Amino acid sequence: MTKDEADLHVERWRDHWVLEEGIDDDIEAMTVRIGTISKWFKATTKDAVAQVGLEDFEYETLHSLMIRDTPGLASPGELAQSMGVSNAGVTGRLESMEKKGWLKRKPGAGDRRRVEVEATREGLRIWREAMALRGSAETDVASVLTPSELAALNKLLKKMTLAIEQEKAAEER
User: Fold this and answer.
1) Cα torsion at 16, 18, 21, 23 (round to 10°)?
2) Which spans in 53-146 are helix H?
3) Three-state DSSP state, 30
4) Quick one: angle between helices 87-99 and 56-66, nearest 10?
5) Which residues contact 54 (CB under 8 A, 6 or more apart)?
6) Which residues have a Cβ under 8 Å from the Cβ of 66 and sit 6 or more positions away?
7) pTM of the entire structure?
8) Contact 103, 120 (CB under 8 A)
9) Residue-wise pLDDT tens for the chain (173 aa)?
10) Among 115, 128, 137, which residue's Cα sits nearest to residue 62?
C-alpha cells in the first residue's frame, strides 16, 4: 500500500533520539491523519468562500447565523458568543455585511430595545452557494470510502467525540 504523510511522519519520529519515550505508531498516525483531513476541510472551505466572493469573516458570520436553532435570526451578542469574538468585532462585521445586503438589523419582536440580526434572501443565497461548493469537496473526499467504510468511520469518530464531549462537560462542572 502507498505510504501517506502520516506513515512518513511516524517513520521519521519512531525511536527518534529527542524523544525520551517512543511514540505509539497507531496513535501518532491517527493524530496526523485527522490533522491533515481537518486542514484540508479548512482549505476547501476557504476556497469555496473565495469563489462566491465572501471574505472568511463574512462566511463565518452568515454560517453562524444560519446554523442556529432559529436559522437566519440571532442577536449580535449571540453571534459574538457563537463565533468567539467580541461584541465590538461583531458590530463591525454586521455594518459591512448590512451594506452589502446580506443581512439586516431590526428591533426585536418581543422587546424593541433588543436588536436582532436577520439574513436576507441575498445573504441566504450566497451562503448556500458557498455551502454547495464546500459540500461538493466533502463529498469528493468521502467518495473514496464505501458506504460501509463511511458508516464504520463515523461510528469510530463518534465514539471519540463523545469521549471528548464527556470530558469537557466534566471539567465544566
Assistant:
1) -50
2) 56-66, 76-83, 87-99, 121-142
3) helix
4) 100
5) 62, 126, 130
6) 72, 119, 124, 127
7) 0.82
8) yes
9) 899 999 999 988 887 766 777 788 899 999 999 999 999 999 999 999 999 999 999 999 999 999 999 899 999 999 999 999 999 989 999 999 999 999 999 988 777 788 999 999 999 999 999 999 999 999 999 999 999 999 999 999 999 999 999 999 999 88
10) 128
All three cell numbers of 126, joined, read 450566497
Contact yes or no for 123/103 (Cβ under 8 A): yes
Query: Nine-digit cell at 77?
Result: 451578542
Q: How many whole angstroms separate alpha carbon 63 and alpha carbon 6?
A: 32
Q: Grid coordinates in use for 8? A: 512518513
Residue type, 96: S
The Cα 89–Cα 91 span in angstroms is: 5
Q: Round to whole Å and give the CA distance between 127 and 121.
A: 10
122 CB-near residues (< 8 Å, 6+ apart): 101, 102
